[in-house]
């Protein structure tokens, strides 16, 4: 289905420009008012200061820690080892007996210091053994498809394609399925391949509606975010999505439909993305309701 749109442009009347009055130097501006613009010579003269103010401030501490991750994780081991050696040297040089005596304040202090040193060493070993796993996008394994359901008007299709382009541009969305009024109105992006003919697997809207994912999302009327889809057994209800889909959003579209948004990154949808997708769903609900009621 192809869309065509014609734009008729007409020349607009040019507004009459009036010279701005020169600011009076003997009059003070009220608090919060804008000062008059500076001459271009002053802007060029102080251009370095302006660019420096607009430049984002870099957190050098965070950058140094990221670049020296192994050294930072080894700091507790180094501190604990140095404290342990210092206690032993102090014990040997001061002439105190090597055997700990509970009645001596020095012995009690040494025991506490040794305990803290061993704790630091163990904490450093834990830091070195446990490292955060880097999360990177994956390439969805599937087939590119674009299917439009029956009964979708040109205006509704234009709205759906706008939503798809917006999601792929601003988020990690790679697959989009919109089910409305009991039918699949749009299936676009990467879809799972059919084992029979190798084409993109068609969405069985009726089977999907009977699943627990659809029912729970429609009953709650709230967005459901599956940040790591591999951990949810309900992914078997989504055979039309690529097998390696990392994250999923189930967004109700009013009371008659739902949007399935698949991403290529674990926890790839931020809170801003989720709120934005909810607003897009409200816009699609208004458009699709008019399309199917007309």
Automatic annotation (TrEMBL):
It comes from Urochloa decumbens. This is Protein COFACTOR ASSEMBLY OF COMPLEX C SUBUNIT B CCB4, chloroplastic. Residues 12-21 have a biased composition (Pro residues). Residues 1-21 are annotated as: Disordered. It comes from the Eukaryota.
